[in-house]
Structure formats: C-alpha cells, structure tokens
Design goal:
It is elongated, with a radius of gyration of 17 Å. By secondary structure, the chain is an all-alpha fold. The chain contains 7 helices and no strands. About 75% of the residues lie in helices and about 0% in strands. Helix 1 runs antiparallel to helix 2 and helix 4 packs antiparallel against helix 5.
C-alpha cells in the first residue's frame, strides 16, 4: 500500500511536468518559482520517505547525475544546451530514481528527434530552412515521465 507522501509525490511531479511543458512552449523557458516550489516539495517528500525507512541515500543521489552533467555541459557550451533542461532534470530527480529518469530522458529525446526529423523533411520538401527552429524538450519529456510515474 502506498503512503500518502507517495501519492503527493506522484501528483506533484505530474503537475510540475505539465506546468514546465506549458511554460516552455509558451515562454521558451520555465520560471524559477516553478523550479523552486516543486524542488522544495520533492525535497519534503524525499525526507518523509527517508525518515520512514523507504528511501536509500545512495540510490537517491545517483538520480542527480544526469542533471548535473547537463548543467555542466550548458555552462561549458555557453548556453547552447538549455540550462532549463538541466534544472528540469534536477527537479525531477527529487521524485524518481536514476533508472526512471534515464528512461524518461531517452524516450523524450527520441520523440523530440523524430518530430525534428519530420519538421526538417517538411522544410526540405517545401524548400524553406528550418535550421533555426528550436523545440522545447520538456514538452517531450511529459509523456514518458507520466508513464514512469503512473505505470
């Protein structure tokens, strides 16, 4: 049987993913308030799970590795890779483990790549360049994240 904090965590990460996707599509970025609110909620949920004996500190901290790596890449490349995507991964890491995070990252990136190829092919057929267009990656992470959290 799931504890109440686990249900709150599932709902919280789902609301965060939807809010982040909407903001990323609309404004091409995610507000710091959104990151802060859901990071604090995730930290509280982790603390509840850890204190009840359900969480493992080592397994928990490994989930932050992809977000930290992406954040470092963002800094090294001067922002060529979205810093918001790294912050998204760091926020999600409070809620899910490394395995789920990597599946979400892989599936969402594949979805984004497929749509990017379709857009590129359509642009080539029409004779216009689509090279300058950017896609909001967090919107593509929404579906795999929901699958990881709720299935």
């Amino acid at each position: 049987m799931m504890q109440i904090y686990e249900w709150i965590g599932r709902g919280g990460i789902t609301v965060f993913a939807v809010c982040a996707a909407v903001q990323d599509i609309r404004y091409r970025g995610i507000s710091v308030r959104t990151f802060l609110a859901f990071t604090l909620l995730g930290a509280g949920i982790f603390l509840c799970g850890y204190l009840s004996g359900a969480g493992s500190g080592y397994a928990f901290f490994t989930a932050f590795i992809p977000g930290i790596c992406l954040w470092i890449i963002s800094k090294v490349t001067g922002g060529m890779v979205g810093e918001g995507d790294a912050m998204y991964l760091l926020t999600v890491a409070w809620y899910i483990g490394i395995r789920e995070l990597l599946w979400m990252l892989l599936a969402g990136s594949l979805l984004c790549m497929l749509l990017g190829l379709v857009i590129l092919a359509c642009g080539m057929i029409r004779g216009c360049e689509e090279k300058k267009r950017s896609l909001p990656l967090t919107a593509f992470w929404l579906v795999p994240l929901a699958g990881v959290v709720w299935c």
